[in-house]
Protein: ParB-like partition protein
Amino acid sequence: MNRLEEVLGTVLLKARQASTLPLEDLIPQAQPRRRFESLEALAESVREQGVLQPLLVRPLEDGHYAIVAGERRYRAARMAGLTEVPVQVLNVDEHQARRIALVENLQREDLNPYEETLGVLALLSEELGKSLEEVVALLERMRKERRGVAAQNVLGSPEAQKVEETFRALGRLSWESFVTSRLPLLNLPEDLRRALEEGTLPYTAALELKKVGDEKIRQRLLREVQAGLSLRDLKARVRQINQGAQVPTPWHREVAGRLARLDLEALPRERRRRVEAKLRELLALLEGEGEQT
Structure:
């Protein structure tokens, strides 16, 4: 059990004994989970066996209870026609509730990489008291300093230590791996982000498809990946596409090409005289360069 799980376990031990509350008294809260898959199957299970694991809730001043963890069970219970569900009431403030919700959701195996990325950033935001944008900027500065790209003087700071402690507690990626492989998911094109969020595209394939600038080609490859194209074959296809992309011709080669096609005789007399003078000047310059070498 990691430290974050221990914290969550300590809070649950201090919670009131499990009881039941009417569904109408419960209010869902924002959380990293954006998809609630297989709700129909869970609702059928709830009809047969009831809600087996209590929802975690905290009391609000108006008499309602905010759902800290268990919104999927809450939704399934509504679908199943239940009027009340088992709950554990936590005596925590809003900050502690958000922290518990984030930790609880990040422990779930079905959280996709995009949702997990947002969840980790949200947890760091809570731990550091910073906005998501500030957290991302901090992680980027840490990476630059670690790579020796720039002297950021941040790795030894209390904030950086808190970042490292949080990632160790989560027991998943290191912060370096998170910055390298997960932060790029925040800048995906809309079609890739949507597919990733829906769970129809692996994040490794999303990062590879991101390298394709042509939207039509990218969408065609996306459909092929969703139809079963392997990551290995995808990388080969992307490499082939990018290598075949048009490389701008250097300006001096373009000039040489135009000169090779030039018909001096067809130019007006004054313009021809000026072009010939420039060409003789260029020829003399090139011959002089040859003599120096």
